[in-house]
């Protein structure tokens, strides 16, 4: 339960009187009892050492250190072209003046993240020169000496400290079950494992190579700050985050509406509706100031140089296709698959003229454009509209029935999922944007836990094609099993007094992932189809996972919307 | 059963065999915790196996990896009668087979699979020094599978059979044992199949603890026939079983049991050696290959007493090889004697485990022709007492891994070494309150301290002393590891770091030998005094 909505919690900021506890009472019992006392009881068994944080949270240090060791062990694994991308950015920011950063195009991997990330690479490059100065030469394409690998891998591991801190803060926002004596059954412990040992983050950051860890750290930290009613800090962190990586703009509606509703309006009517007169100009100005300052700091130099259009064109490359090289498991994967199926059927029964079919191979890996044969082609504008429309209900929900941080998180997850479902050129990695915040909800309500299990399992499974090399096959399977077995058993034991988390249909669906994996990775390469239809495993994986993701999205949406109705009825 | 638990089971069953012990217990919690533990251990093993192996890219002799590959080549291509003989096709000087028959059969089995994948890997003569990424993957997989099938189930079942401990303690013991860095680094990094022989020995201990003496003997015979180094464990097995027979009375049930055990041992040996039994010359040749007496007292820098002494006196030059043999035999025998007598007279499971530790340690310290990797034979029994004496066991396990540092450095496993050591330390500290368990009682030294009380009175500050000794030792190991990896030794003393590593480890081992002997010998007084109290 979110501490900040607890009545009786003595909070430093008396600005937020919207205190209608929106929780179904059967889940949490009386909310009066010691909302902030989640640290009581359950002292970890060991006596603590220097690594241990105060307050009997030694297990947190152990979990964080343990996963850091695992990350170190992953250093010699395969790394993708993203490794070269970041090496190139190190070189660009180190050698060129600011005015050249967004123009340099020696490598095909040009700088396409916002300026703060470029500054981040700039800072890193000043440490990198002590490891191996050759990695900072722009022309040294695909340079990967041992020192380079060590430096880049360790830079990810060390910046993850921010993520660890953010998880720590998030855990403080979750109220412990008062009865749980066993440390392994405390929601805070489970949440820490689900976040710190997240399978997707591990393989994307520490095998595939990216810097998502500290970025998600910023996001979770801002979420934690909002939950702790430190709104300005949360807004500041999110503004900074946006200028690190602009993909987080997908969840900006949730932030905007939440801050407007809960921070700019300081009071509610008795029935929970908005009290228009409580509007606080001071708060709006503060928020605007923060956003403008951060933006000025980030984009200001480029505006002065008159390079803003160039920066924007680098950040939003609409020339890329509807789907990423691997189809992300979203609505468009289903759409494309339907188109393909219709084409095959049409050709077989002569509804279609074979000469009019565009000859585009589907997911060869480098294909950027996909031409539809039967269904109408999709334009970026169409996806934008779809995304907008799909986000709207959740935003409305946040506005008209504010539920404090809980409602904010639900809206955040829905925004992330909706844009994942309908966005243009979505990467399959973007699913993490929904999975990580949903972890926070999953340890608090059985319903969310069920959705979480479906979404994580399918979402993580859809990341499998990222690692296609043989030595990494056991790693991804082992880590996936590790995470899946843990999340299932821990959430099950957490909610063991309630109904089963999944029904039989969902169970069957998830179990089918195992034969699918066996077919895609083991049986298919041995068959003769491998040469004729190389895209079949990717297609199967993404379409099958798309079903699960869509289902989870719908289920979450329905649960949020219906909850909204029931609470309103109660209010009436 | 809930649907989600069905999923978890399905996921696991599709990829792994799960020891049946899990299913007999109703507690789902324990089942999933153990699964998570095993998965974690497997992940660590596989990530370590991504690093380099012994002798990678170092012609002409390469290393243990090439030795194992060569054995596959030899066993697959040559008739069984030539395996241990020097022939035109089998140059024994180039990694000749010098392990017992089971190893050879295992190599043959692996070679059979290798042949299906790529015949070049085991082609006679031409495949020498074959190295490639797919081949490395194949070899690593064979070790991984062997570990998964033999060693890990034994550890899990052993931990599940621990009595008077909570589920959480059992799981954390399993986690710590499975994360023991020494075995992971040698098997999955350096490249050997120690987990097979050690796993069989563990199965032996496990079955003896269930009172299934015959099965236990079979398992131990398999271990012995996989690696002759398992002889280090043979005396405790022998003494324990003999003591058990004595206890039952040598004229009645005891004699029957003894006959049965003897019959089982002979039969399992006969089965293992069947192809070589046709000819006495064959057997003699195998034995000559297994026990090469002419190789000298010790090789390389090993942390035993002879190597450490030779820093002061060059034993190898002073004493003749025959005398060396006799000397080492005599010293080993003397150091083994008390433990073995004690175990025979008072056979108990606890005493048996401790005797495994102390006998193996005596062998390691004093016997002839010891390899640095043989310390694993001590470490695995130490793992078995990890939940009883966590502090000492963890300390020993750290030192044992440290003693192999020069070898691991040579193989380029420094990163894996550092990380697995720290992870193991973390796992132990997090699951057993290591630093609170340094009192006299926790170290099981109560009887000994009562015995000494008449003479000394410093036992009050004992926990503090032990703790500071431990911290000193860990610091020393850390500093030395760091220096070995980074600092270039002075030109006059090129072996400075390996020698100091082995001497320091040897000192530790002597200390541990004394400690374990004290526990074993003062054990009965403990029970007697308890009886008196009650």
| Run of helices and strands of chain A | HHHHHHHHHHHHHHHHHHHHHH
From the alpha-carbon coordinates, what is the Rg of chain A to the nearest angstrom?
Answer: 24 Å
How many strands, what sense, and barrel or not for the largest sheet of chain B? none
Number of domains of chain A: 2
The count of helical stretches of chain A stands at 22
Instruction: Report mean pLDDT of chain B, rounded to a whole number.
Output: 87
Number of strands of chain B: 0
Q: What percent of residues of chain A adopt helix (DSSP H or I)?
A: 55-70%
Sheet-strand content of chain B, in percent, reads under 5%
Overall 3D shape of chain A: globular
Quaternary state reads: heterodimer
Distance between the termini of chain B: 47 Å
The tally of strands of chain A reads: 0
Structural class of chain A: mainly alpha
Summarize the biggest pleated sheet of chain A: none
Low-confidence stretches of chain A: 1-55, 361-368, 565-572
Distance between the termini of chain A: 24 Å
Q: Which strand-content bin applies to the residues of chain A?
A: under 5%
List keywords for this structure.
heterodimer; A: 572 residues; 60% helix; globular; B: 534 residues; mainly alpha; 69% helix
Layout of secondary structure:
The complex is a heterodimer of chains A (572) and B (534).
Chain A: H1 25-28, H2 58-73, H3 81-95, H4 115-131, H5 146-173, H6 187-196, H7 199-209, H8 212-227, H9 231-242, H10 252-264, H11 281-304, H12 308-315, H13 331-348, H14 380-400, H15 404-422, H16 432-442, H17 446-461, H18 472-494, H19 504-511, H20 513-523, H21 529-532, H22 536-571
Helix pairs in contact in A: 2-5, 2-6, 3-4, 5-6, 5-8, 8-9, 9-11, 10-14, 10-15, 13-22, 14-15, 15-16, 15-22, 16-17, 17-18, 17-22, 20-22
Chain B: H1 3-15, H2 21-24, H3 28-49, H4 64-77, H5 101-117, H6 133-160, H7 167-178, H8 181-191, H9 194-209, H10 213-226, H11 231-248, H12 253-272, H13 280-290, H14 305-309, H15 315-318, H16 321-345, H17 349-366, H18 375-384, H19 390-403, H20 405-410, H21 414-431, H22 446-452, H23 462-486, H24 496-521, H25 523-533
């Amino acid at each position: 339960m979110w501490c900040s909505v607890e009545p009786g919690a003595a909070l430093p900021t008396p600005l937020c009187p919207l205190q209608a506890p929106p929780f179904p009472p059967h889940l949490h019992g009386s909310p009066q009892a010691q909302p902030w006392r989640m640290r009581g009881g359950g002292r970890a068994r060991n006596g603590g050492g220097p690594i241990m944080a105060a307050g009997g949270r030694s297990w947190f240090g152990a979990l964080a250190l343990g996963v850091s060791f695992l990350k170190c062990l992953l250093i010699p694994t395969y790394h993708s072209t993203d490794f070269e991308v970041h090496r190139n950015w190190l070189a660009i920011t180190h050698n060129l003046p600011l005015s050249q950063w967004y123009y340099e195009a020696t490598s095909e991997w040009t700088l396409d993240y916002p300026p703060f990330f470029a500054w981040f690479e700039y800072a890193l490059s000043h440490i990198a020169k002590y490891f191996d100065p050759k990695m900072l030469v722009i022309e040294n394409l695909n340079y990967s000496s041992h020192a380079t690998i060590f430096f880049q891998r360790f830079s990810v591991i060390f910046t993850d400290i921010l993520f660890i801190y953010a998880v720590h803060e998030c855990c403080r926002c979750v109220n412990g079950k008062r009865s749980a004596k066993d440390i392994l059954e405390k929601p805070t412990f489970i949440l820490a494992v689900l976040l710190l040992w997240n399978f997707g983050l591990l393989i994307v950051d520490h095998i595939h190579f990216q810097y998502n860890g500290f970025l998600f750290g910023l996001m979770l930290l801002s979420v934690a700050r909002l939950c702790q009613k430190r709104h300005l800090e949360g807004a500041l962190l999110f503004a900074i985050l946006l200028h690190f990586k602009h993909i987080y703009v997908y969840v900006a509606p949730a932030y905007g509406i939440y801050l407007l509703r809960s921070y700019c309006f300081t009071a509610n009517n008795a029935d929970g509706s908005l009290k228009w007169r409580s509007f606080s100009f001071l708060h709006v100005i503060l928020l605007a100031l923060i956003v403008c300052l951060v933006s000025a700091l980030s984009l200001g130099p480029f505006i002065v140089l008159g390079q803003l259009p160039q920066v924007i064109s680098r950040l939003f490359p609409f020339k890329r296709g509807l789907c990423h090289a691997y189809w992300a498991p979203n609505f468009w994967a289903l759409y494309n698959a339907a188109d393909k199926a219709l084409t095959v059927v049409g050709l077989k029964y002569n509804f279609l003229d074979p000469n009019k079919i565009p000859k585009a191979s589907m997911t060869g890996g480098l294909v950027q454009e996909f031409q539809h044969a039967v269904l109408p082609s999709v334009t970026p504008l169409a996806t934008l509209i779809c995304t907008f429309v799909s986000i709207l209900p959740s935003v409305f929900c946040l506005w008209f029935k504010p539920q404090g941080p809980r409602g904010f998180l639900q809206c955040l997850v829905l925004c992330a999922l909706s844009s994942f479902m309908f966005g243009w050129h979505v990467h399959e990695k973007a699913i993490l944007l929904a999975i990580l915040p949903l972890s926070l909800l999953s340890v608090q309500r059985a319903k969310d836990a069920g959705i979480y299990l479906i979404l994580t399992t399918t979402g993580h499974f859809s990341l499998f094609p990222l690692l296609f090399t043989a030595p990494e096959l056991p790693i991804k399977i082992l880590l996936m099993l590790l995470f899946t077995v843990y999340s299932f058993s821990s959430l099950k034991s957490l909610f063991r007094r309630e109904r089963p988390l999944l029904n039989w249909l969902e169970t069957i669906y998830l179990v089918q992932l195992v034969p699918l994996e066996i077919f895609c990775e083991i049986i298919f390469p041995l068959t003769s189809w491998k040469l004729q239809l190389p895209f079949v495993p990717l297609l199967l994986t993404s379409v099958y996972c798309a079903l699960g993701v869509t289902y989870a999205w719908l289920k979450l949406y329905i649960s949020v919307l219906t909850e909204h109705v029931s609470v309103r009825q109660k209010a009436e | 059963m809930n649907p989600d638990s069905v999923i978890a089971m399905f996921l696991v069953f599709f990829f792994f065999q799960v020891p049946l012990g899990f299913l007999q217990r109703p507690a789902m919690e324990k089942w999933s915790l153990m699964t998570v533990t095993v998965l974690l251990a497997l992940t660590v093993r596989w990530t370590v196996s991504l690093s380099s192996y012994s002798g990678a890219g170092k012609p002409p002799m390469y290393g243990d990896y090439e030795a194992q590959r060569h054995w596959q080549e030899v066993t697959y291509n040559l008739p069984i009668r030539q395996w241990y003989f020097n022939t035109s096709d089998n140059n024994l000087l180039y990694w000749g087979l010098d392990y017992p028959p089971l190893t050879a059969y295992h190599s043959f089995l692996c070679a059979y699979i290798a042949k299906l994948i790529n015949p070049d890997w085991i082609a006679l003569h031409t495949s020498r020094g074959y190295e490639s990424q797919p081949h490395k993957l194949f070899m690593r997989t064979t070790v991984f599978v062997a570990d998964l099938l033999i060693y890990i189930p034994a550890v899990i079942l052993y931990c599940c059979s621990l009595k008077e401990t909570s589920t959480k303690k059992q799981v954390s013991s399993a986690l710590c044992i499975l994360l023991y860095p020494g075995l992971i680094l040698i098997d999955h990094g350096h490249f050997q199949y120690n987990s097979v022989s050690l796993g069989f020995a563990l199965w032996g201990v496990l079955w003896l603890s269930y009172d299934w003496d015959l099965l236990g003997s079979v398992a131990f015979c398999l271990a012995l026939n996989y690696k002759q180094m398992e002889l280090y464990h043979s005396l405790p097995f022998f003494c324990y079983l003999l003591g058990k027979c004595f206890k039952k009375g040598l004229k009645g049930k005891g004699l029957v049991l003894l006959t049965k055990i003897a019959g089982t041992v002979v039969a399992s040996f006969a089965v293992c050696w069947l192809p070589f039994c046709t000819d006495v010359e064959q057997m003699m040749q195998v034995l000559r290959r297994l026990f090469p007496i002419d190789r000298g007292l010790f090789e390389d820098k090993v942390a035993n007493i002879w190597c450490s002494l030779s820093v002061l006196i060059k034993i190898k030059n002073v004493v003749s090889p025959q005398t060396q043999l006799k000397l080492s035999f005599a010293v080993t025998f003397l150091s083994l004697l008390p433990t073995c007598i004690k175990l025979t007279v008072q056979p108990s499971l606890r005493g048996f485990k401790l005797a495994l530790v102390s006998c193996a340690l005596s062998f390691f310290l004093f016997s002839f022709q010891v390899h640095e990797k043989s310390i694993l034979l001590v470490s695995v029994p130490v793992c078995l007492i990890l939940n009883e004496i966590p502090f000492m066991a963890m300390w020993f396990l750290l030192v044992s891994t440290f003693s192999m540092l020069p070898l691991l450095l040579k193989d380029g496993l420094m990163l894996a070494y550092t990380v697995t050591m720290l992870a193991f330390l973390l796992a132990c500290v997090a699951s057993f309150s290591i630093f609170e368990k340094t009192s006299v009682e926790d170290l099981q030294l109560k009887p000994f301290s009562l015995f000494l009380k008449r003479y000394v009175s410093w036992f009050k500050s004992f926990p503090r002393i032990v703790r500071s000794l431990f911290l000193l030792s860990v610091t020393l190991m850390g500093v030395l590891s760091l220096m070995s990896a980074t600092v270039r030794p002075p030109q006059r003393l090129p072996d400075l770091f390996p020698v100091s590593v082995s001497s320091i480890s040897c000192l530790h081992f002597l200390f541990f030998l004394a400690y374990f002997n004290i526990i074993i010998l003062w054990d009965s007084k403990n029970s007697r005094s308890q009886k008196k109290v009650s």
